[in-house]
Each structure stands twice: as structure tokens, then as C-alpha cells.
Design goal:
- The structure holds two protein chains of two kinds.
- Chain A is mainly alpha-helical.
- Helices cover about 65% and strands about 0% of the residues of chain A.
- Chain A has one domain.
- In chain A, strand 1 and strand 2 form a beta hairpin.
- The radius of gyration of chain B is 30 Å and the shape is elongated.
- Chain B is built from five helices and five strands.
């Protein structure tokens, strides 16, 4: 291990960290803007042009709000809750390949922080850990609404993780690899995108991603109409901010995951036929990847301002009686197609 | 026994397959919200953009001057008399020598106050005025913190002087 390698990775980590936080910040603005436009009004537009300074104002306000820890709360866990939520949200982006290699002089820099050969498993582990933040926070608040929210979050994430895992198994049968870098590299060009091989798997995965991110229509852990504020009822100041931030970071990361698993990540059509230099293709690839991510984030918000929330039994019905059987059927079908393809068309 | 024929039996049909998988309905909903996304927004961004007023809009009063810049008001009190809300008070004074360039008539209002909290902007004062001295042609009366600040005196009501020879069109 050379020093230059460590420094290179540290710089990359720093850049990704900053980009993640900035995108999460501006997601809050985008959410409000999109909500506005979908309801025939302008969103926030007083702070700076188009409200561009609004996230900064919100952040500043969060810092200056009074920090309240309820008397009956478990003090340590009350603070640990949002900390876990934000940390798991931030470290989950480590295995996502943001682009191909960049060549500077004779150094080749990979635009991925860690090429873990079980990248998908790492992602799943970290995303599953994220629910502990919500559970701890909800339990430590010593408030029945928070506890209800936390329990809902836990059972919801367990139910939907099964369907999500099963939909990923079908994808892995196609890609034959667990490394995200390799999965994205396989999807070079347009026809090789996994969405064409796994349309049903993608839909299942996307629905589960909505549930994992606690987004509408699956935002039962924080449903305002029943549970006041859900798991963060007792939170104030920046700790509430951290919870909200982690939600938006999760949304960003799962958009990135969906884009790289099913929509070819940094690959764009005809990328190898244009005769561009490798560095240019890499840079354009990164931009294309972010465009895909933004489209997914837009889709998340679009759905949020369209659909009402599921009732809790409907949520469980959908998870256990629809998505899991569908995911299993998808595995069987994928196996069948692979078998037919290998026997007759190879 | 049937009393009226208005009874309607509503039958709840089981959902069809298309309804049960939600997706057609979700796509329909998404199309509606997307249509609204590109619609023109009817909001008027107020301080920057002002809704056009009617031509006979009645706003804040102004006490007019004549073509030589003299105050037209002669403190006859007809406006105060006609005011249904009793918002106008005034004190009359006699014009002294050398003040002919300030006041048009021999008598003028030394104090002229309108309580903007009482005023109902009916416009009867401008109808009553024989000297065409008062018009409700100003902007909105703005908000304030104290009741006493709503009593507008001559400093706020009298039109600013301007040189009519330099006024174009």
C-alpha cells in the first residue's frame, strides 16, 4: 500500500461525501419545488434566485433551534439513534462505481472507493443497519407514537428486504457476479442494460426501495396523520435534521443503486463508437450516471406527490402476498430462460 | 313496502386483476401530476408583480392642489359631514396675507386628519367635495403596528408639489 494510493482514495471519499451531502441538501429544496409545481404553485423562491439558498437557511435554522432531550428518554440511545442513521446512510455509497478509470499521467484512478467483490451484500447489510437508527431513536424517546413508528419501520423493512433480496437473486443469476463494478461494466451499450433482462425484477426492486427509504406510499414509520411525527416525534434541532438528511441520502444512494444495477450506471448508448478518449468517456459517463440518479430522485418525489399512503395491513399484504411470490416467480422464470438460452442458443 | 323509487342498491364488485395490481391506477395518477407539473402557475408574486387594479379603485385619499400648486381645500367640512364612518376631522384657519401662493381659498384646513381604521373607502367625501380637493386615488393603505399611526394628517395626505410646466403629457 503506497501513500499516494491512500491519499487518492481519501480525496475520492471526501469528494463523494461532499457531493452526497450537497445532493441531500438540495433534494429537500427539490422536493418542495416539485411539490409546488405539481400543486400548481411555485415552491420556496424567496431565499436567493429560485430559492437556491433555502437549504442553507434551513440548515442554519436547525443549528440554532433549541435541543430538547425529553426527561424520560434514554439519553445515550437518544443521541445514538440519529448518529447511526446518518452514518449508515453516508457509508453506503462506498461501493458504488461512479465512473470508469481516469488516467492522469500514468496513474490510473478508479472512480470507486472500494471494489468489494460482494458489493451488493455490503449495500444490503448497511441499508439493513440503517433501520437500527430509527428503531433506537423511536424506542429511546419514551413516547408511544415514536415507539409505534419505530416498530412499523422495523417490521416494514424486514418484510420488504426479503422481496428485495429475492429480486436481486434473479439479477445475480443474469450477471453472475456480486461486484457492483463488474455488474455495471457488463452493461456496456444500451441493449445490455439489465432492465431489459429483468423488467419484473426491477419493478419489485423499486417498490422495495421505496419501502426501505420510508418514502410515500410506504412512509408509515413517520405517518403524520396517525403518529404525530412517527419515530422522530420527540426530536428537535439538528438531530431531527440528521434524520431527515439520512432519509434523503438513502434516497440518493438507492437511486444510484437502481441506476447502476438496472440502468447501466455510467454506461450510455454508443459510448464506444464515438471514438472519444478514455478520460472523456469517463467524465461524460459520470455525468450520465448523475443524470440517471437525478431522474430516479425526481421519480421518487413525483410518486410522493401523487400517491396516498398505504394502510398498514395493505402494506403487509403487498409485501408478503404479492411481492414475495412475484419475486420467487421471477427467479424461476429467469432460471428457465437462462437454461433455455444456454441449451439451445449458445 | 316500497315508498319511493329512489333507493339504489350499490353492489361492491370484487376488484379486477388490473385494479388489484395497482399499476394502471398508479400510472394514471402519475400522468395527472405530471400534467400539472407543466401547467402555467396562477400565482402572482406580489411585491414584484402587482395585480392590475380597476380604474375606479378607491385607495388612500390625497388632498389635491390646483394648477399653481395651492391647496384646494377650503375646510368647508362637507366631507366630514358626508362621511358615514366619521373618519374625517379638520380644523379651519383663515388665510393670512402673503399665504396666497399656499392656499387657494380664504379659508383653509390647518389640520386635516383621516382615521384610516375608521374609513370604509366609500368615496362619499370625494362626491361631497365642492372644490374637487379630495380624491381616493392613492395606493393601498399599508399595515402598521399602532392605532395612532393610522390617523393620517396633512403630511401624508396632501399631494406633493410639482412644477406643472415641466410635467409632460
Amino acid at each position: 500500500m503506497e501513500w499516494s494510493f491512500v491519499i487518492e482514495k481519501l480525496i475520492l471519499v471526501f469528494i463523494i461525501f461532499v457531493v452526497t451531502l450537497v445532493i441531500a441538501m438540495y433534494s429537500t429544496l427539490a422536493e418542495r419545488k416539485i411539490a409546488g409545481f405539481m400543486q400548481d404553485r411555485y415552491g420556496p423562491d424567496r431565499a436567493g434566485i429560485f430559492g437556491i439558498l433555502q437549504p442553507l437557511c434551513d440548515g442554519g435554522k436547525f443549528f440554532f433551534k433549541e435541543e430538547i432531550i425529553p426527561a424520560g428518554a434514554h439519553k445515550v440511545l437518544f443521541i445514538v439513534g440519529p448518529t447511526i442513521a446518518i452514518i449508515t446512510a453516508c457509508i453506503s455509497s462506498a461501493v458504488i462505481p461512479w465512473g470508469q478509470e481516469l488516467q492522469i499521467g500514468d496513474r490510473i484512478i478508479s472512480l470507486q472507493v472500494a471494489d468489494v467483490n460482494v458489493g451488493i451484500l455490503y449495500m444490503f447489510g448497511v441499508i439493513a443497519l440503517g433501520v437500527y437508527g430509527i428503531m433506537l431513536g423511536g424506542w429511546a424517546s419514551n413516547n408511544k407514537f415514536s415507539l409505534m413508528g419505530a416498530i412499523r419501520a422495523a417490521s416494514q423493512s424486514i418484510s420488504y428486504e426479503i422481496a428485495m433480496g429475492l429480486s436481486i437473486i434473479a439479477l445475480l443469476m443474469v450477471t453472475q457476479s456480486l461486484s457492483l463494478k463488474e455488474i455495471v461494466a457488463q452493461q456496456s451499450g444500451f441493449v445490455n442494460w439489465n432492465i431489459w433482462a429483468q423488467p419484473l425484477g426491477f419493478i419489485i426492486f423499486m417498490v422495495c426501495a421505496f419501502a426501505e427509504c420510508n418514502r410515500v406510499p410506504f412512509d408509515l414509520p413517520e405517518c403524520e396523520t396517525e403518529l404525530v411525527g412517527g419515530y422522530h416525534t420527540e426530536y428537535s434541532s439538528m438531530k431531527l435534521g440528521l434524520y431527515m438528511f439520512s432519509e434523503y441520502i438513502n434516497m440518493f444512494v438507492s437511486s444510484a443503486l437502481m441506476a447502476s444495477l438496472y440502468f447501466g450506471g455510467y454506461n450510455f448508448p454508443f459510448m464506444n463508437d464515438l471514438g472519444w478518449s478514455a478520460n472523456l468517456i469517463t467524465i461524460v459517463g459520470v455525468i450520465v450516471f448523475f443524470v440517471k440518479i437525478f431522474l430516479f430522485i425526481f421519480f421518487f418525489m413525483w410518486v410522493r406527490w401523487t400517491l396516498p399512503r398505504f394502510r398498514y395491513d395493505q402494506l403487509m399484504n403487498l409485501g408478503w402476498k404479492m411481492l414475495i411470490p412475484l419475486a420467487i416467480a421471477n427467479i424461476v422464470l429467469t432460471g428457465l430462460f437462462t437454461l433455455i438460452k444456454d441449451t439451445y442458443f449458445s | 313496502m316500497q315508498l319511493t323509487n329512489r333507493k339504489k342498491v350499490i353492489e361492491q364488485k370484487p376488484m379486477t386483476f388490473a385494479e388489484r395490481i395497482y399499476f394502471p391506477a398508479i400510472i394514471k395518477g402519475l400522468r395527472i401530476t405530471l400534467r400539472h407539473f407543466f401547467k402555467k402557475i396562477p400565482t402572482i408574486k406580489y411585491p414584484e408583480e402587482i395585480r392590475p387594479y380597476s380604474k375606479n379603485f378607491r385607495g388612500q385619499h390625497s388632498l389635491k392642489r390646483d394648477e399653481e400648486g395651492r391647496e384646494r381645500c377650503t375646510a368647508c367640512g362637507l366631507c366630514a359631514l358626508s362621511c358615514p364612518a366619521e373618519a374625517i376631522t379638520m380644523t379651519a384657519a383663515e388665510r393670512k396675507k402673503g399665504e396666497e401662493h399656499l392656499y387657494r381659498e380664504e379659508k383653509y384646513a390647518s389640520v386635516y386628519e383621516i382615521n384610516m381604521l375608521r374609513c370604509i373607502f366609500c368615496g362619499l367625501c370625494e362626491e361631497a367635495c365642492p372644490k374637487e380637493a379630495i380624491y381616493l386615488d392613492g395606493p393601498h393603505v399599508t399595515a402598521d403596528y399602532l392605532r395612532k399611526d393610522f390617523i393620517y394628517g396633512k403630511d401624508k395626505l396632501v399631494e406633493p408639489t410639482f412644477d406643472i410646466t415641466k410635467l409632460k403629457s
